[in-house]
């Protein structure tokens, strides 16, 4: 079986691009669903980073993969809470749009 | 990991209070599930019991020799002192949360009780852990529980505040984690002690990536600490949440995150050839100035307290910025001034939010101007509120003044005088907006309706909390040695 060698920098670049897309989406999108998806994207790019370092990094070991398992679990909890809050907001306002969360504006 | 090493890991010392709080959180959750709906307050009392046991356990072991177990948890001075502080603060908050449950206007579900406990467990993990994975899990346990707590009353403001907190808090944790992943990549380690030993060679090999990960982690923690470019969620979340939850965000959450910030930045980035702490100093200065200027224009009490907590976060960042000049000989100075100010600020904050919860439930006070409606016979409540506001501002004879004085002394000793001077300059500005509510409370009433306000059952627990906070504020203002003497025996790290 031949193993394909992917160089570390290109994996890191992929993670960095995904992270930036996620950051842009989380800060600029109007739909709250898209915002939560963007958050998930940022956390996933961190996972790519951790797994890449644990396999191809200067000191390969399993800590990175364990770390990424924790990250996945915690991110799932965070997004579940996020969707619960969006759902409650939607029932209240009949809208899942970030612009409608404006009642503190004076 | 053999059983032998597990048995000799001093787990009782390092994770005793943490496990007591976590276990009681799970127990209260199960009991709450099975309990008939008419027992509204029982979960809160059970949670209080759990916190009390944990506090006693933490207090008994305060003078023990620091231990290090499982390469993850420590019981050094910072961990044990902050554990005691966090448990005490949670206890006070839950105590006045009991009265909020009774009030009809709030509609706070009783699930809040164990969410407080879970959040407290997260905060304890943040102050005792020395491993990036555990620190991250603790941070998220605290944050996710707080998101739910903020949105829990399901009023419109609460939902909006909770949502904004969730989105920005999520971005913050992602930034922190992204920075941490680079640290792991360069060292192959997640343990702070091991990384601290390697940090010198880390800086020699790739300083650019270290600076990048420093900035990412600082921004991520900055969101959680509501430092200035990242503070947008703070007023909205504080306004939407119930008073006890807002107090929790301002005191427990902030104390734990500051302790974690100090530990992470000290261990990961101190052995540097490229000095990164001026970025922290710049952020502290920006937060102090912008926070105080923003507070000048606030008319609502909640938003005033929220923005003032942003400004206070700037003051609290000063000791961390001072690490640049500190040598191991002067580290205790940094730790002393940070922890003293954390104690003073947290107690004052909890007191202020306790007063606010009475004012809101009885008189529906929202704006500063509404304070003039307060009937004359509430002179103790007024005096307490005035005491807390002056404590925030740093009036002599209150703990806030002593806290700021020690920050100034630390800045002076570590040759960063400009930070101390700036601290006192902006404190002068802060007197303007802290005195505004006091003036409104004590001015002659334009129209006298001596109505009793909303008919609310007696709020004994809240009054106890207020009395305790006033006492501590004045005691630390008059006699700060009581705490500083104790700190001088503490082995912080």
Automatic annotation (TrEMBL), chain A:
<keyword id="KW-0520">NAD</keyword>
<keyword id="KW-0874">Quinone</keyword>
<dbReference type="Pfam" id="PF00420">
    <property type="entry name" value="Oxidored_q2"/>
</dbReference>
<dbReference type="GO" id="GO:0048038">
    <property type="term" value="F:quinone binding"/>
</dbReference>
<dbReference type="InterPro" id="IPR001133">
    <property type="entry name" value="NADH_UbQ_OxRdtase_chain4L/K"/>
</dbReference>
<comment type="subunit">
    <text>NDH-1 is composed of 14 different subunits. Subunits NuoA, H, J, K, L, M, N constitute the membrane sector of the complex.</text>
</comment>
<comment type="function">
    <text>NDH-1 shuttles electrons from NADH, via FMN and iron-sulfur (Fe-S) centers, to quinones in the respiratory chain. The immediate electron acceptor for the enzyme in this species is believed to be a menaquinone. Couples the redox reaction to proton translocation (for every two electrons transferred, four hydrogen ions are translocated across the cytoplasmic membrane), and thus conserves the redox energy in a proton gradient.</text>
</comment>
<feature type="transmembrane region" description="Helical">
    <location>
        <begin position="32"/>
        <end position="54"/>
    </location>
</feature>
<protein>
    <recommendedName>
        <fullName>NADH-quinone oxidoreductase subunit K</fullName>
        <ecNumber>7.1.1.-</ecNumber>
    </recommendedName>
</protein>
<keyword id="KW-1278">Translocase</keyword>
<dbReference type="GO" id="GO:0050136">
    <property type="term" value="F:NADH dehydrogenase (quinone) (non-electrogenic) activity"/>
</dbReference>
<keyword id="KW-1003">Cell membrane</keyword>
<dbReference type="GO" id="GO:0030964">
    <property type="term" value="C:NADH dehydrogenase complex"/>
</dbReference>
<dbReference type="GO" id="GO:0042773">
    <property type="term" value="P:ATP synthesis coupled electron transport"/>
</dbReference>
<feature type="transmembrane region" description="Helical">
    <location>
        <begin position="6"/>
        <end position="25"/>
    </location>
</feature>
<comment type="similarity">
    <text>Belongs to the complex I subunit 4L family.</text>
</comment>
<keyword id="KW-1133">Transmembrane helix</keyword>
<feature type="transmembrane region" description="Helical">
    <location>
        <begin position="66"/>
        <end position="90"/>
    </location>
</feature>
<dbReference type="GO" id="GO:0005886">
    <property type="term" value="C:plasma membrane"/>
</dbReference>
<keyword id="KW-0812">Transmembrane</keyword>
<keyword id="KW-0813">Transport</keyword>
<dbReference type="InterPro" id="IPR039428">
    <property type="entry name" value="NUOK/Mnh_C1-like"/>
</dbReference>
From TrEMBL, chain B:
<dbReference type="GO" id="GO:0050136">
    <property type="term" value="F:NADH dehydrogenase (quinone) (non-electrogenic) activity"/>
</dbReference>
<feature type="transmembrane region" description="Helical">
    <location>
        <begin position="204"/>
        <end position="227"/>
    </location>
</feature>
<feature type="transmembrane region" description="Helical">
    <location>
        <begin position="276"/>
        <end position="297"/>
    </location>
</feature>
<feature type="transmembrane region" description="Helical">
    <location>
        <begin position="338"/>
        <end position="359"/>
    </location>
</feature>
<feature type="transmembrane region" description="Helical">
    <location>
        <begin position="108"/>
        <end position="127"/>
    </location>
</feature>
<keyword id="KW-0472">Membrane</keyword>
<keyword id="KW-0812">Transmembrane</keyword>
<feature type="transmembrane region" description="Helical">
    <location>
        <begin position="42"/>
        <end position="62"/>
    </location>
</feature>
<dbReference type="GO" id="GO:0048038">
    <property type="term" value="F:quinone binding"/>
</dbReference>
<keyword id="KW-1278">Translocase</keyword>
<feature type="transmembrane region" description="Helical">
    <location>
        <begin position="417"/>
        <end position="435"/>
    </location>
</feature>
<feature type="transmembrane region" description="Helical">
    <location>
        <begin position="77"/>
        <end position="96"/>
    </location>
</feature>
<dbReference type="Pfam" id="PF00361">
    <property type="entry name" value="Proton_antipo_M"/>
</dbReference>
<dbReference type="GO" id="GO:0008137">
    <property type="term" value="F:NADH dehydrogenase (ubiquinone) activity"/>
</dbReference>
<feature type="transmembrane region" description="Helical">
    <location>
        <begin position="165"/>
        <end position="184"/>
    </location>
</feature>
<feature type="transmembrane region" description="Helical">
    <location>
        <begin position="12"/>
        <end position="35"/>
    </location>
</feature>
<comment type="similarity">
    <text>Belongs to the complex I subunit 2 family.</text>
</comment>
<keyword id="KW-0520">NAD</keyword>
<keyword id="KW-1133">Transmembrane helix</keyword>
<feature type="transmembrane region" description="Helical">
    <location>
        <begin position="248"/>
        <end position="270"/>
    </location>
</feature>
<comment type="function">
    <text>NDH-1 shuttles electrons from NADH, via FMN and iron-sulfur (Fe-S) centers, to quinones in the respiratory chain. The immediate electron acceptor for the enzyme in this species is believed to be a menaquinone. Couples the redox reaction to proton translocation (for every two electrons transferred, four hydrogen ions are translocated across the cytoplasmic membrane), and thus conserves the redox energy in a proton gradient.</text>
</comment>
<dbReference type="InterPro" id="IPR010096">
    <property type="entry name" value="NADH-Q_OxRdtase_suN/2"/>
</dbReference>
